[in-house]
Specification:
With 391 residues, this protein is of the alpha/beta class. Helix content is 42%, strand content 15%. It has an eight-stranded parallel sheet with strand order 4-13-12-11-10-7-6-5. Strands 1-14 form a two-stranded antiparallel sheet. Strand 5, helix 5 and strand 6 form a beta-alpha-beta unit. The chain binds flavin mononucleotide. Flavin mononucleotide binds next to helix 2 and helix 17.
């Protein structure tokens, strides 16, 4: 396991380096990469520079309250863990490990449909709430099976991701032979296998955990979907607004729509029953060239008009990024790569380090701002470019 103590890992960029050292290239790049030229992915982080703080000085804030509520649940932190598919590739039982650490920290873990651990095991591994993220892979009946299992084991919200009609073009994955490696065909895999041999500690842990897996939350007629079929399956799993009718009927609980960029889609999501919206471009992994999420947050908040809770993800690497998103108006944010790097670097200890880095960054930023509670963060504390508000 890599070292992730506070002296050697000071920020999320350090966690990223530690993950790079432990993971084979194909796995690290799967986490780290984005679509096409990766412009949107980079912009998601860079755009936080466009928002500047306006602190209230000489305000004594001895303690800072980070608690917030999301869909009625009280969280100890204003950030949740986003769905990150195939986390079990990063670390043995990866989804269970990340969920346990999220629960211990007092926040929500979101489990992807495309996970390596079954939803009931993930729910049992944590004392915190679990949301279930839905892809319609395998069609309606298969999706309903997943919804039923998530409901049965007590997941508290269903996150429907709407930005994945096809998988984005992740050029790094093509170069690293992702498709060939999941084919299971020895001759096809052979040229790409050496990257595993360069990471023997990861390889040993991966093999001990069962090696190349299927997707236990996608139960087809003849059993869990094998890894080899994922690209083709995604392309046949488009979700459209019409699907929300049967999804609502099957789930009968709060629905979160993930992947909204515009006022129009925010209103559409609400019309189709969304209790919350996640302003998200999938971490720049889907449509490259779409605006960074913080930039479109004001537009979506205005359109939601208080009828749905508005969350944001994309590019969050520092506590100050979380504070800026809350000041602009997000109720809470989700983190993806920040914790995925931690999981890849050192399992639960790495996820805990990611959460600590963000938590302490939020506390410090809020003390410097003279703000004692996340509920008091608003636009008076930041300078937001005027054109963001005029759309
Ligand atoms: C490795 C990886 C896998 C992901 N898998 C999924 C997924 O299965 N479903 C989904 O809705 N989003 C998925 N996402 C997107 C995240 O939920 C989230 O939107 C994104 O990571 C946020 O950006 P950030 O990584 O810059 O924090 C994935 C992201 C990464 C990095």
């Amino acid at each position: 396991m890599g070292r992730v103590d506070s002296a050697s890992v000071v920020n999320v960029a350090d966690l990223r380096e530690a993950a790079k050292k432990r993971l084979p290239r194909v796995v690290f790049d799967y986490i780290d990469g984005g679509a096409d030229a990766e412009w949107t992915m980079r912009e998601n982080s860079r755009v936080f520079d466009d928002v500047m703080f306006r602190p209230r000085s000489a305000v004594a804030t001895a303690s800072v309250d980070l608690r917030t509520t999301v869909l009625g649940a009280t969280l100890e932190l204003p950030f949740l863990l986003a769905p990150v598919g195939s986390s079990r590739l990063f670390y043995p039982r990866g989804e269970e490990v990340a969920a346990r650490v999220a629960g211990d920290a007092g926040t929500i873990y979101t489990l992807s449909t495309l996970s390596g651990c079954p939803v009931r095991d993930v729910k049992a591994a944590t004392r915190g709430p679990v949301w279930y993220q839905l892809y319609l892979i395998g069609g309606r009946d298969v999706a309903i099976g997943g919804i039923e299992r998530a409901k049965h084991c007590g997941c508290s919200a269903l996150v429907v991701t709407v930005d994945t009609p096809v998988a984005g073009m992740r050029e790094r994955d093509v170069r690293n032979g992702t498709r060939e490696l999941v084919s299971g065909a020895p001759f096809t895999m052979f040229p790409y296998l050496f990257q595993f041999l360069a990471r023997p500690r990861w390889l040993a842990a991966y093999l001990r955990d069962g090696g190349l897996m299927s997707f236990p939350n996608i139960v087809l007629k003849d059993g869990p979907m094998p890894y080899a079929d994922v690209a083709a399956a995604l392309e046949q799993s488009m979700v459209s607004w019409d699907d929300f009718k049967w999804i609502r009927e099957a789930w009968q609980g709060p629905i979160v729509v993930k992947g909204v960029h515009t006022a129009d889609d925010a209103r559409r999501a609400i019309d189709h029953g969304a209790a919350a919206i996640i302003v998200s471009n999938h971490g720049g992994r889907q449509l490259d060239g779409v605006a960074p999420t913080l930039r479109v947050l004001p537009e979506v908040i205005a359109a939601a008009d208080g009828q749905a809770e508005v969350l944001l993800d994309g590019g969050i690497r520092r506590g100050s990024d979380v504070v800026k998103a809350l000041c602009v108006g997000a109720r809470a944010v989700l983190i993806g790569r920040a914790y995925a790097y931690g999981l890849g670097a050192a399992g639960g200890a790495g996820v805990a380090r990611a959460i600590d880095i963000l938590r302490s960054g939020i506390v410090r930023t809020m003390k410097l701002l003279g703000c004692a509670s996340v509920r008091d963060l608003d636009r008076s504390i930041v300078h937001v470019p005027a054109e963001w508000l005029n759309r």
